[in-house]
Amino acid sequence: MLLGNEAIARAALEAGICVATAYPGTPSTEIMEALAEVGEQCGVYVEWSVNEKTAFEVAYAAAISGLRSITSMKHVGLNVAADILMSSAYAGVENGFVVVSADDPSMHSSQNEQDNRWYGLLAHLPVIEPSNAREAYKFTKLAFELSTQYKIPVILRTTTRISHTRMPILLEDDIPTQRNCKGQFKFDTSRWVLVPGNARRRKLELMKTWSAIRENEGREPLVTIFNPGIEKAIIAGGIAYSYVREALDILGYRDKVTLVKVNLPVPLPLKPVKQVLEYSSEVLVVEELDPIVEMQVKDIALTSGFKGRIIGKELVPVNYELNLETVYNAVSKFLGLETTSEKIWSSVEQVRTDPPIPPRPPVLCAGCPHRETFYILKIAATKAGLKTPVYTGDIGCYTLGFQKPFETQSTCFEMGGSIGVASGLAKVVSNPVIAVIGDSTFFHAGIPPAINAVYNDSNIVVVVLDNMTTAMTGHQPHPGTGVSATGKQTTRILPEKVLEAVGYKVYVINPMRVKESIEIVAKAFEEYRKGVKIAIVSRMKCALEVARIARRAKIVLPVYTIIQDKCTGCMACINLTACPAIMVEPGAKKPRILGELCVGCGLCASICPYKAIEIANTPSPDYEKIWVEL
Amino acid sequence: MKRVYNIAIVGVGGQGLLTLGSILGESAIHAGLDVAVAEVHGMSQRGGSVIVYVRIGEEPSPLIPIGGADLMISMELLEAARYTQYLNKNSILVTNDFIWPPPLAKYPSRETIITALREKIPELYIYDANKVSSEITGSIISANIALLGFSLGVNEELRNLIGLENVVKALEETFRGRVLELNKKLLYKSFEDGVKIAEEKRSTR
Fold it and tell me: Which residues in chain A come in under a pLDDT of 50?
């Protein structure tokens, strides 16, 4: 049983890749995690790159040197790599190169739900889309073949429900044990140097390839037509096909419509679509998010004089991910049937309680270092007399700091945005501006704007939350950890060194020492008010990592408890930390700490005005080391 | 067998829902069945509300429709109540007897939740999986395995579909050494508890 992402990794190994690169991002991360685990054994070079653009470039370099390679990223990551994506279409490749774009409809873990099939249309590159995890395995190999055949990059587009669904997968091939991963760079300035004159020639080549794919690739399995010749036809691709197939099964209509399965949505092959439009007069296009296939079907219909009806987004939602119900209802309506999903699955509906079931948004974990830093920043800002500071925010676990009681993320747009937006705000508003960014995000896209702020004399504070890992995506190493994707020791690059080099006065704090840190940060904020360029690096390891290390090394972390006699029920501990390990039972007057969840960060104990929170166990003597040292 | 058997696993991110989904999936494979396990990674795992969909059948699509779950396994009471719309009147709900409120939230009491669940779901089973897990493994970390064992005990259809022996095989692939032994012990104990409770329930009808 493999996760869709693991299936892609396995298929890439079978396809004979030599290089694999990525920057972690949900829902794409597990592709490179799987490859990092076995890469070395298989003779494949695997890296976590600093960002998607660099990841793309590293893998592309292999592809222009005659080696197969893969790069994977989340949908918004492709925006970061879009510059090189466009150019790579012009220059092409010497061997199979697959760019995996893992899209996130419904924004389970993203700031938008852009449909990256558009990138295929924009760059004139083919997009292959599997309909489930099993096909992700098959079609990754197909993508390599197509890329090798046409000598251009191929985009493999998945969505969350393909990337993150496990299915049993029957493996077809072995992983080659011998592979020649010595690349050869063939000097050819007319191809690799895209000055205008060369780019103009390459554009014509690209458009020739694009037309060839459109004309010739109507074959299976890129497009499959079931039950040809029926008046009603349904065209579906990607995850939408899985829902259509199941909906037709339930309706008993599997054999009563022509079903066109599209696995190459961009460019949509002409021949099979023309063929269907000859015999079908009513066509439903079912696809998740934007009407990419629908648009192309309508285009083909217009030029071939089709007289019938093409329905798509009138019946199929354009926002958020699809599910069996929405597709069932669309298909049922298209077929002129009365049945709806509510009639098939009669829900008992959500129970009602008083008070109602509270929402449970994601929160900072118990012991999360960001909680400490946010508390310190707020207290220090007040102490230093900073009035209504704007905390520009960024992408990571710490984005959750937008919530009460912290409210130390006032914006969050894209990777690295905190510092750039802060730079601009400082020019136009009178509030103090504090950019808060994570360590991995700082290396990804935070350095150029940090330089910009100094160069253009923007009066901001940069705060780097250094938890020594890329936490949100499941703890991948980054340049600040000094460890590579495959676990090798490498040069450790410290954010404070970078910031110092570009002109900041940097303070490094250990947020576990709350009082000491407040003093340091308050002093730094006072200097900031006088115009000094200040950066603060708050270094404390991710609590999930700490708990894991402690378990393995048998180090006992403190577990705190609330001494009921000393507690006055002021609730400062819970109101100021929102720690999930502290709870108030219904009707209770005093909070209590869930010992199972407490990892002993000690923030609540340092906040409690009555000193009612104490360590309940005997922790190992130097437990603090694992929180602050690599 | 129905075309697709739907199991919804709900709880709070970090409670071992993904592991439970994966073990169910592996068990289904050992039973010679096709299966799809749809997970949620990333932000929602940070203490948020999580649902994992396990669909056993021939090439299933990934998501369980509203009202379509045959079984729901809940790691926490508020989450059981949050996701009841996935159940129909014939569904079985197995929930951990544990409330873990979101920080700073007002929430209904255990009794209020259980009364509300009972009104809608005849096949409701409440099991103190945290306690059983603590007793056997010394920690609540294996409450997910306790709920799995208990579910197999109370739910004959699931037991016949995937088989206890295949679940044991799946555990053997997931855990090693002492952790494996403790989890196996926990599985058998909770399974027996489930069988006993189901018998009691039948005899009182």
Answer: none
R_g (Cα) of chain B, nearest Å: 16
Number of domains, chain A: 4
Q: Quick one: A123 and A211 in the same domain?
A: yes
Substitution target in B78, B104, B114, B133 with the highest count of A β-carbons within 10 Å is B104
pLDDT of residue B1 exceeding 50: no
pLDDT-above-90 percentage for chain B = 87
At residue A47, φ and ψ (nearest 5 deg) are -140, 145
Residues A334 and A427 in one domain: no
Mapped onto helix, strand or coil, the DSSP state of residue A548 is helix
What does the pLDDT read at residue A224? 98
Chain A residues lying within 8 Å of B86, measured CB to CB: 347
List chain B residues with CB under 8 Å of A106: none
pLDDT for B78-114, tens place per residue? 999 999 999 999 999 999 999 999 888 899 999 999 9
pLDDT reported for residue B44: 63
Structure-block tokens of residue A198: 């060369």
Rounded to 10 degrees, what is the CA torsion of A514, A520, A525, A526?
130
Q: What pLDDT is attached to residue A86?
A: 98
**Per-residue confidence (pLDDT) for residue B191, from 0 to 100:** 98
Residues from chain B contacting residue A1 (CB–CB below 8 Å): 22, 25-26, 29, 35, 37
B147-171: per-residue pLDDT in tens? 999 999 999 999 999 999 999 999 9
Give me the total of CB pairs closer than 8 Å, taking one residue from chain A and one from chain B: 206
Q: What is the pLDDT of residue A291?
A: 98
The answer to whether A361 contacts chain B (CB < 8 Å) is yes
Q: Do A347 and B44 touch (CB under 8 A)?
A: no
Among A134, A161, A404, select the one facing B38 at the smallest CB separation: A161
Q: Are residues A206 and A260 in the same domain?
A: no
Distance from C-alpha of A426 to C-alpha of A458, rounded to nearest angstrom: 6
Is omega for the bond preceding A221 within 30 degrees of 0, making it cis?
Answer: yes
Give A132-187 as a 3 state SS string: CHHHHHHHHHHHHHHHHHHCCCEEEEEEHHHHCEEECCCCCCCCCCCCCCCCCCCC
What is the SS3 assignment for A299?
Answer: helix
Range of the domain at B106: 4-203
- Of the candidates B25, B41, B60, the beta carbon closest to that of A1 is on B25
The radius of gyration of chain A from alpha carbons, rounded to an integer in Å, stands at 28
φ, ψ for residue A237 (rounded to 5)? -140, 170
Chain B: give the shortest CA distance to residue A215, in Å: 31
**Contact between B29 and A474 using a beta-carbon 8 Å cutoff:** no
CA A163, CA A158: separation in Å to the nearest integer?
A: 6
- Predicted pLDDT of residue A177: 82
Residues 160 through 219 of chain A touching chain B, CB cutoff 8 Å: 161, 164-168
User: A 544-583 residues with CB below 8 A of B?
Assistant: 574-575, 578-580, 582-583
SS3 A414: coil
* ipTM score of complex: 0.95
Q: Are residues A234 and A206 in the same domain?
A: no
The CATH number of the domain where A326 resides is what? 3.40.50.920
CB atoms within 10 A of CB B138: 10
